[in-house]
Each structure stands twice: as structure tokens, then as C-alpha cells.
Design goal:
Oligomer: heterodimer
Bound molecules: iron/sulfur cluster, FE2/S2 (inorganic) cluster
Order of helices and strands of chain B: HHEHEEHEEHH
Largest interface: A-B, 19 and 22 residues
Number of strands of chain B: 5
Structural class of chain A: alpha+beta
Shape of chain A: elongated
Strand order of the largest sheet of chain A: 15-14-22-21-20-16-17
CATH topology of the largest domain in chain A: Rossmann fold
Radius of gyration of chain B: 28 Å
Largest sheet of chain B: 3 strands, antiparallel
Strand order of the largest sheet of chain B: 2-3-5
Helix content of chain B: 10-25%
Chain lengths: 536, 202
């Protein structure tokens, strides 16, 4: 441990720790481009230069470490280093670096999707020169198509090489490289080897400027109109932490654009996904766009599915269940629904003395990205459902016996993913979101919200319980599954009600063994806060 | 309640002429009469129209570039700056629309709407625009039958420009701030409609 002084603050710095990190701990933000905690340090952008007493030149804070000085040689009698991040020397250096970075930059912020979250914009505003002294014409190279989902706006690049290091160190696919030298240096792919791997979307987030642009999100909206909601990826059992970007509600003139998720981006969680997500997760909602959403409850009348109201659909469900008799009814939970929703399904079944089961997740390929330089290999799990673990847990089951369950007379299906109907049960009730082969055969369909449209928790493959939050409203008449469960319970004469998902979670944690270790306060901080206020 | 009485003396003139007030009345009349021989300051609207200053903030227009395409690149600066939240923009790739898709025209608005009833004509949108794509005209006499008609879409706003540029072909100069050199420009000549009555006579 060495003790250093940064501006006016003292901070301890561990052996091998870089100055930029130590400064961040005491709230001093040193500007940087090429540094990324997850990748090799190259110190190439020179944005992070700081003034270190005793050094002949300014030092890059992202690669400078501090060792202990012998007792007699300490600076100011106690420090191992004295660093200034804001004196005139540093300010001049930052101005100069920015002037260089902007030499050939086209300044096309009006059409750049990064504008608003671009570090070149932010730092130019904060530390820059505000005008160019270049008298020669700018070199503005053409944009390049790097692969199926990414464009390279060559002229905007600041050559920080984050994207190159990502493909070398994290994905290990090595598609990107720097070609040419000096003024002409460019990021490129080799002919016939486009940027195409399951992790490529991450380079768009990594790029500190608007050089790498995602084709899916191009011109979708300006980032300052977005609000962020913390969520969990439902793509596989890894449970990556994500952020959903949706349009601000208070923008009156964008009202009709509000209920759409525009982007899914990774959220840092060192225990699960570090800084990344895979493209299956990133473009998860793209697949949904091709399917037909069920917007209103449906009831089979005279052999044909017809639209109906919630009231009559729910009444019809309880009617069917009652007439079949308890022994002939099965409620099948889903690995695609949250813990709370599966728990309520179990509770509803228990109240009716009906059997419970859970459908199987879809299985696909496992893909692991591992390189020599990657501390945390990233694995896309083969179990393509977010919550098989938790669903079994919440329902008190050990495994899925769905093939037997489907032979019952009345089958209530939570979601129709991966359900293979050999023969249609006498009555099939589906709580689902999209039209498919199963819903076509259903007798009653209740339209359900997706994970972006309600809140809840998923348990990932390691047993970690994580919460996703509601970002947008469910379309049409569809409702969150936990609300549908309450409606069904009330229609069948059971007397329970929950105000919020938090109430369900609280009861679930207390009554189901598998959730004993879950801390309600971290998942639903707002909820616990409310409870405390009631006590006070 | 006791009533208090105050005696006041009405000021009297020095002689009877003063007491008839005839001189002040004539003085007043002279002022009135003087105006009969001055240039009138009212206009015979709508036959005659006032010449508005070049920075007048009236109806919006979307300007065109040399090739007749809208200059707007759908950056949404104007809608962000707008305090009345009355501009609605949906951006799109212009690659398919304009084949000679060059740098600053890669993006364009497929929807550009201004709700002129909600607008407060503050001019913030014009200030904010980095492309000089939105501007305000001297048109202020807007009338229509429904509220919906006041939501100007892209085509209509471009149409306003076409109409405006016919009357003010030197519009571009105005944007460059060359007011002084424009003494003879359309902005400073009287806009009058044929058969308009001459001001001054009754
Ligand atoms: S494309 Fe972006 S991330 Fe890659 S070197 Fe250029 S600026 Fe850095
Ligand atoms: S690894 Fe799994 S959880 Fe993570 S982003 Fe990909 S699909 Fe989603
Ligand atoms: S003039 Fe003001 S209120 Fe009207 S559109 Fe422009 S910014 Fe909005
Ligand atoms: S009018 Fe100007 S400010 Fe508004 S979107 Fe178009 S280019 Fe941007
Ligand atoms: S961040 Fe330190 S040199 Fe780039």
C-alpha cells in the first residue's frame, strides 16, 4: 500500500493499481478513452495525462502505478506520489490532445447516434479548445460495413483501439485490426472475414465515440430522450444484467413512441456478466417483432377463437376448472416466467387442489469465449430460459413431467414456449403473449405481459435471484401474469390479493424454502422502505 | 355621524373669455387638425400590409438546399429546445431516398410536424438548429377550420418555404446577417396588393 496525494486528497493505492482507479475512489474523474478495466492497458489516447511531481513529463493515469518510497525519501514527508489532475500543465495537455483527436473529425453530431452519450462531445465541452486551427482540408474517409450488424463511421474514429482489443481479448475472434499508419490509420476487417460473432454488439457500447454504430438501432432515437430501466436478460440461464432504453414519458410530442424498448445494453455485474452481454440477449426483442402479439382475451365459441373480455374469459376458466373436478386439472408453470408468477400459479393450483408442473426450457448451444487475456470467460448457456431453476423452486418441483401432465382433462399453460402437444387436452387454457401452434389449439387465451412490461425476479443457473423492472406498459388488453393469477383466484373463490409484485415476493420468500437466503431489501428496496415507514 | 363641511373655491378666470374655455378648445383642435395633414399611421388592412422586420417570428418553414432537398437532418435539436413540446420528428435513413447519399444527408425526417397552435413563436427551434433547416417567416395570419389543420407536416412546411422564397429570393442573405446591404431588398419594399386604396384620403 502506497499513500498518494491527488490534488488535495489523500488516497491509498494498492500495488499494481493504476492511478485513474484510485482517483475515482475519491471522486476525481480523470478523462479517458482507451482505458477499460476489463482489457489490456495500451495508454494510447493520452487523454488521461496527469502531472506527477518528480516526473519529467506528464504521465498517463491509466497505466501509471505507484510503489512505496523508502522512508527518508517520501514527498512532503509522507506521500509516495503527489499528483495534480487539474493544473495548467494538465489542462493544456488535454486541450492539445482533444485538438489532435478532432483534427479530421467530421463533427457530424447532428446525424450521429452517439451524440448525447459521446465522450468526445463531453470532454470537448469540458476540456477542449472549441475551435480548430487546421487549415488543410479534413481527411474524411467513407463509412464501412463491418458485418451483419455493425457500421464503422471511419471518420469519427479516435483510434483508441478498444474495439480491436475486445475482439482480441474478450471474444477471441480477432476480426478487427488497425490498418495503415499515422494520419491514415483506420480500423478494418479482413476481406471475407466480417465482424460476425455472438458478442459483437459490445463494441458499439465500448466505442467512446460514434464510430461503431449498430444497424438495428441506427437513427431510432436521440439518447437524451431515453430513460433507463434495470432489467435481466431472459435469453438464457446466465441471467445477464441489462439496461432497457425507452422513450421519456414526459415528452408530450413523443407520446406514441413511448411504449417501445429501443435498446438493450449491458449493466456491469462482476458476478454474472462483467461488462458484456451476448447478441442473443441484445437483439432479443427483434425476434418478437416478427411474431403476432395476442392483445385481447380469446374464447373458443362454436369451434372458432373469438375475442372476448377479461371478465368472461376469467369466468370461463373457473367454470371449466370447476366442471372438470380437481383431480383432472393441471397448472403448468414456465421457466420463462418470473419466480413470483410461478409461485402464484402454484398457490392458485393448491387452493383448487389441482396438480402443478413446469414446462421444459428450450436447449441450444453453449458457447464460451475464452482467451489467454480474458480473466472472466463469457459463456452463453445452453438452457435458453431465464428461470428454470426458480420456477421449479417456486412450484416445489424437482423436474418437469410435462408429457404426463398434458394428458389431464384441463391444462392451464403458463406460456407456450417449447410445449409439444401430441394430442389436444379436452380443455386447453393458455396464458401467453404470442400466437403459435399451441395457442391456435387453445380454448381460452389470456394475453400476458412480457418481461419488459412487468417486474419480478429470475433465478439464474447459479441460484442468484435477480430483479427485472417494468419499463413499458403492456400493449392492448394484456396484463402481467401475476395480476392474471389474482383475477383467476378471485373468480374461483379464493380470497387473496396483492397490491404489488413486492408483496408476492415477500410472501414467497417467507413460504418457499429455496428463497430463504434472498434479501428482499436489495431486490425491492422501495418496498422495504414502505414497510419501515409503516412501523414508524 | 357628524358631517364635515369643506368650502372650496372654484378657480375663476381673469376675465369672461377665460371663463368660456374657448382658447384651450382651439388649442386642442389645432393638434387634431395638424394630424389631418400628416401621413397616417394606420393601414388599410388587408389590402395594404405592414412591412415586417426581417427577424419577425411568424409561421415556420423547412428550408431546402441547392438540390431542393430538405436541409433538415432530423437531429431533434429543435424539438429538444422547444419549450412548448410542439415539434414531432421521426428520423429515417435517407439512403433509399437520395441515391447520392453524402455525409450530412444520411439521415432525414420522415415525419416532421409542428403544432402551430401549441407553438408560442419563441424562435428557440431556429436558434437550436445546426443546419439552418428551420426558420420563421413573416406569415402570421394563419386561419383554418380544424385544430388538426394547424399541425403542419413536412410537406406543408417545405411548401411554406417555396412560397416564401418567391417573395424573398434573397432569404439566404438574411440568414448571413447582411441586413445593411439589403436596403433595396424585398424586406424593405412595401408589399401592396393591387387596387389597394391609397392611404391618406377618406
Ligand atoms: S472504432 Fe471506436 S472503439 Fe474502435 S478504435 Fe475507433 S474510436 Fe476506438
Ligand atoms: S449470455 Fe444469456 S443471459 Fe447473457 S445476454 Fe446472452 S442470452 Fe442473455
Ligand atoms: S417557436 Fe418556440 S414554441 Fe414554436 S416550435 Fe419553435 S421552439 Fe417550439
Ligand atoms: S430542423 Fe434543424 S434542429 Fe430540427 S431536426 Fe432538423 S436539422 Fe435538427
Ligand atoms: S486512457 Fe490513458 S492513455 Fe488512453
Amino acid at each position: 500500500m502506497a499513500l498518494i496525494k491527488i490534488d488535495d486528497q489523500e488516497v491509498e493505492i494498492a500495488k499494481g493499481e493504476v492511478v485513474i482507479n484510485a482517483a475515482k475512489r475519491v471522486g476525481i474523474d480523470i478523462p479517458f478513452y482507451c482505458y477499460h478495466p476489463g482489457m489490456k492497458i495500451v495508454a494510447s489516447c493520452r487523454m488521461c495525462l496527469v502531472d506527477m511531481v518528480g516526473m519529467p513529463k506528464l504521465m498517463p493515469a491509466c497505466s501509471t502505478t505507484v510503489g512505496e518510497l523508502p522512508p527518508g525519501k517520501k514527498l512532503e514527508e509522507k506521500y509516495d506520489a503527489v499528483i495534480y489532475t487539474d493544473n495548467d500543465k494538465v489542462k493544456t495537455a488535454r486541450r492539445a490532445v482533444l485538438e489532435f483527436l478532432l483534427l479530421n473529425h467530421p463533427i457530424d453530431c447532428p446525424i450521429c447516434d452517439k451524440a448525447g452519450e459521446c465522450k468526445l462531445q463531453d470532454y470537448s465541452y469540458e476540456h477542449g479548445n472549441h475551435e480548430s486551427r487546421l487549415i488543410d482540408p479534413k481527411r474524411i474517409p467513407e463509412k464501412k460495413d463491418l458485418g451483419p450488424s455493425i457500421y464503422l463511421y471511419t471518420s469519427r474514429c479516435i483510434m483508441c483501439s478498444r474495439c480491436v482489443r475486445f475482439t482480441e481479448e474478450i471474444s477471441g475472434t480477432e476480426e478487427l485490426k488497425v490498418t495503415h499508419r499515422g494520419w491514415h490509420a483506420e480500423i478494418s476487417v479482413s476481406p471475407g472475414k466480417p465482424l460476425d460473432n455472438k458478442m459483437m454488439g459490445n463494441v458499439v457500447d465500448l466505442c467512446p465515440v460514434g464510430c461503431l454504430i449498430d444497424k438495428h438501432e441506427k437513427f431510432e432515437g436521440r439518447v437524451w430522450n431515453f430513460v433507463q430501466t434495470e432489467s435481466i436478460c431472459p435469453g438464457c440461464s446466465k441471467g445477464c444484467n441489462t439496461v432497457l432504453d425507452t422513450m421519456k414519458h414526459q415528452k408530450l410530442n413523443l407520446e406514441e413512441l413511448v411504449d417501445t424498448v429501443y435498446r438493450i445494453r449491458p449493466r456491469e455485474n462482476m458476478d454474472v456478466n462483467q461488462w458484456w452481454i451476448c447478441d442473443d440477449g441484445r437483439y432479443h426483442l427483434e425476434g418478437d417483432k416478427k411474431k403476432t402479439r395476442i392483445l385481447v382475451p380469446h374464447l373458443r365459441e362454436n369451434g372458432a377463437l373469438t375475442e372476448t373480455t377479461w371478465f368472461s374469459a376469467v369466468a370461463a376458466v373457473s367454470e371449466k376448472i370447476k366442471s372438470a373436478g380437481a383431480g383432472q386439472v393441471v397448472f403448468i408453470g414456465s421457466p420463462y416466467a418470473s419466480n413470483e408468477e410461478n409461485y402464484l400459479l402454484g398457490k392458485l393450483a393448491k387452493g383448487l387442489n389441482a396438480a402443478t408442473d413446469v414446462s421444459k426450457p428450450i436447449f441450444g448451444d453453449t458457447q464460451t469465449f475464452k482467451t489467454d487475456m480474458n480473466k472472466y470467460p463469457f459463456t452463453i448457456e445452453s438452457e435458453k430460459a431465464p428461470n428454470f431453476h426458480g420456477a421449479k423452486n417456486a412450484l416445489g418441483l424437482t423436474d418437469s413431467k410435462i408429457d404426463q401432465s398434458l394428458s389431464k382433462k384441463v391444462v392451464v399453460l403458463l406460456g407456450s414456449h417449447n410445449v409439444d402437444l401430441k394430442s389436444k387436452p379436452e380443455t386447453l387454457i393458455v396464458i401467453g403473449s404470442f400466437e403459435d401452434a399451441v395457442t391456435k389449439q387453445a380454448d381460452i387465451i389470456l394475453p400476458a405481459a412480457l418481461f419488459t412490461e412487468t417486474s419480478g425476479t429470475y433465478t439464474n443457473k447459479d441460484g442468484l435471484v435477480q430483479k427485472f423492472n417494468k419499463a413499458i406498459n403492456p400493449p392492448g388488453d394484456s396484463k402481467a401474469i401475476w395480476q392474471i393469477m389474482i383475477n383467476l383466484a378471485q373468480a374461483s373463490g379464493q380470497d387473496w390479493y396483492y397490491e404489488t409484485v413486492g408483496d408476492v415476493a415477500k410472501e414467497m420468500i417467507q413460504s418457499v424454502g429455496g428463497f430463504k437466503s434472498v434479501d428482499l431489501g436489495t431486490l425491492y428496496p422501495h418496498f422495504v422502505l414502505q414497510d419501515e415507514q409503516v412501523v414508524a | 355621524m357628524a358631517v364635515s363641511v369643506k368650502n372650496i373655491t372654484v378657480p375663476r378666470g381673469k376675465n369672461w373669455v377665460d371663463n368660456t374655455y374657448i382658447i384651450p378648445v382651439i388649442k386642442g383642435l389645432i393638434i387634431t387638425l395638424r394630424h389631418m395633414f400628416k401621413k397616417p399611421i394606420v393601414l388599410y388592412y388587408p389590402e395594404n400590409k405592414k412591412v415586417l422586420p426581417p427577424n419577425y417570428r411568424g409561421l415556420h418553414m423547412l428550408t431546402r438546399d441547392e438540390q431542393g432537398r430538405e436541409k433538415c437532418v432530423a437531429c431533434e435539436m429543435c424539438s429538444t429546445a422547444c419549450p412548448a413540446d410542439c415539434i414531432r420528428i421521426v428520423a429515417n435513413d435517407s439512403g433509399d431516398v437520395w441515391k447520392d447519399n453524402f455525409e450530412n444527408r444520411e439521415k432525414h425526417p420522415i415525419v416532421f410536424e409542428i403544432d402551430e397552435l401549441r407553438c408560442i413563436f419563441c424562435g428557440m427551434c431556429v436558434e437550436a438548429c445546426p443546419e439552418d433547416a428551420i426558420d420563421m417567416t413573416d406569415m402570421h395570419n394563419l386561419a383554418d377550420y380544424t385544430r388538426q389543420d394547424f399541425i403542419y407536416d413536412k410537406e406543408r412546411l417545405l411548401g411554406v418555404y417555396d412560397e416564401y422564397i418567391k417573395r424573398h429570393p434573397d432569404h439566404a442573405k438574411r440568414r448571413d446577417g447582411e441586413f445593411k446591404a439589403m436596403k433595396n431588398s424585398s424586406y424593405f419594399s412595401v408589399v401592396s396588393v393591387e387596387n389597394a386604396k391609397k392611404p391618406g384620403g377618406h
